Amino acid sequence: MLHLAENLKRLGTESAFDVLAKAARLQAAGTDVINLGIGQPDFPTPDHIVEAAVKALRDGQHGYTPANGILPLREAVAADLHKRHGVDIDPDCVVVVPGGKVTMFFAVLMFGEPGAEIMYPDPGFPIYRSVIDYSGAKAVPIPLLESNGFAFSAEQVLERITPRTRLIIVNSPANPTGGVTPAAEMDKLAAGLEDYPDVAIMSDEIYSEMLYDGRQHRSILTYPALKDRAIMLDGWSKTYAMTGWRLGYAVWPAALAPVATRLAINCHSCVNAPTQFAGIAALEGPKEPVHAMVAAFDQRRKSVQAALNGLDGFSCIEPAGAFYAFPNITGTGRSAAELQDLLLEKAGVATIAGTSFGEYGEGYLRVSYANSEENILKAIARIGDAL
Ligand code: PLP
Predict the structure, then answer these.
(1) 92 C-alpha vs ligand 1 centroid, how far in Å?
(2) Of the residues 237, 239, 246, 356, which should be mutated to test ligand 1's pocket, given the most ligand atoms within 8 Å of the CB?
(3) How far is residue 379's CA from residue 375's CA, in Å, rounded to a whole number?
(4) CA 24, CA 52: separation in Å to the nearest integer?
(5) Helical ranges in the chain per DSSP H
(6) Which of 116, 261, 355, 375 has a CA between 20 and 30 Å from the CA of residue 197?
(7) Cβ neighbours around 148 below 10 Å, total
(8) Peptide bond before 182: cis, by omega within 30 degrees of 0?
């Protein structure tokens, strides 16, 4: 009899992967499944990025790199952040890791332990809650409501702070809702946090390049008063269609960057070298492929919202960012999980129940528009028939 550690029982998962596995089984058995469950761009990584990795391998970049990432990549990140957010970042505060997820794991490991409280968005990316539970900290949800465009408000966050709060996790543009928190609300939150100097904040900005209708992103890095306790998570997965490369980074407060690096040394040593060179090419190369991809998502977002609103029992507010719609399905009379299973089995359409992202996701489905417009419209028509 093996004795596994008790805390493993508290480690959750991303149940989206279960739906995707079920969809793959149905597909293998000959069912035509249209996948609107996916959380990754349906575009290839731009050629110049792929070529940079191939060149790095041919040039002999086969060895370990510094644990926090090669300096030219961290400098390229700092230059990109200056361009996008107008901030001056010390490349030594940048820690390059294998994907966006690693930063959230490290941040929660740094602050989470029994007796501590960590806030997280609900519905939100499921790994936040999973890792908070694993750490032994108390997970305190910030409910994201349709009535507020699925944005968090500063008031909601500030009123949940207690003497035990160590870390607040926020995410805008958001998975799974497509919600975006307005810049003015971020300003209010940042100002309110000045009263709580012992509370850190991790802002997951992995979708910050995917905003529509001229909305502006306000990075947590733009608030000098939070410099010593703001962690900004970003990466290449979504913006450059690089999910499988495993490349992300965070900007850490100067005192925490060495701690993140120590965790990296204990865990994965470094990100594979050619991928880091690909990351430089992505940041310094032509941006047209990114703009074309975001323009395609913008177009699809409008057709998805219109088509979903045409379904009996569905209503869908306009997604403001990322590549997800989050329709309210309470009018169908079914729970989110029931509807997810029914649509997969009867319509051959994979979507994800809102409850996969937290209890406040009940009554909603996540519909990803990272699929061709033709497939999306065909899928929604099939959903209409099944309903
Ligand atoms: N943060 C959010 C909000 C996400 O939706 C995802 C991926 O779906 C990630 C982080 C993780 O990204 P990565 O694949 O780079 O680990």
Answers:
(1) 23
(2) 237
(3) 6
(4) 32
(5) 16-28, 47-58, 71-85, 100-111, 126-135, 154-158, 183-193, 257-267, 273-284, 288-309, 336-342, 373-386
(6) 261
(7) 14
(8) no
- Cis peptide bond N-terminal to 274, omega within 30: no
- pLDDT tens digit string along 276-328? 999 999 999 999 999 999 999 999 999 999 999 999 999 999 999 999 999 99
Please give the structure tokens belonging to residue 208: 């910050």
Start-to-end CA distance of the chain, whole Å, equals 48
Percent of the chain past pLDDT 70, that is, above it, reads 100
Going from the C-alpha of 265 to that of each of 66, 67, 70, 106, 279, the distances in angstroms are 9, 6, 14, 12, 20
Q: What's the CATH architecture for 63-284?
A: 3-Layer(aba) Sandwich (3.40)
Give residue limits of the domains in the chain. Answer: 6-44+288-386, 63-284
In terms of C-beta density within 10 A (0-12 exposed, 13-18 middle, 19 or more buried), how is residue 85 classed? middle
**From the CA of 101, how far away is ligand 1's center (Å)?**
6
Q: Which residues contact 293 (CB under 8 A, 6 or more apart)?
A: 41, 43, 241
CATH number of 6-44+288-386: 3.90.1150.10
Q: Please, what sign has the CA dihedral across residues 30, 32, 35, 36?
A: negative
With a threshold of 0.90, does the pTM exceed it? yes
Position in ligand 1 atom list of the atom nearest CA 204 = 1
pLDDT at 16: 81
Pocket of ligand 1, beta carbon within 6 A:
39, 99-101, 125, 171, 175, 204, 206, 235, 237, 243, 248
Characterise 333 by phi-psi region: left (phi > 0), alpha (psi -120 to 50), beta (else): left
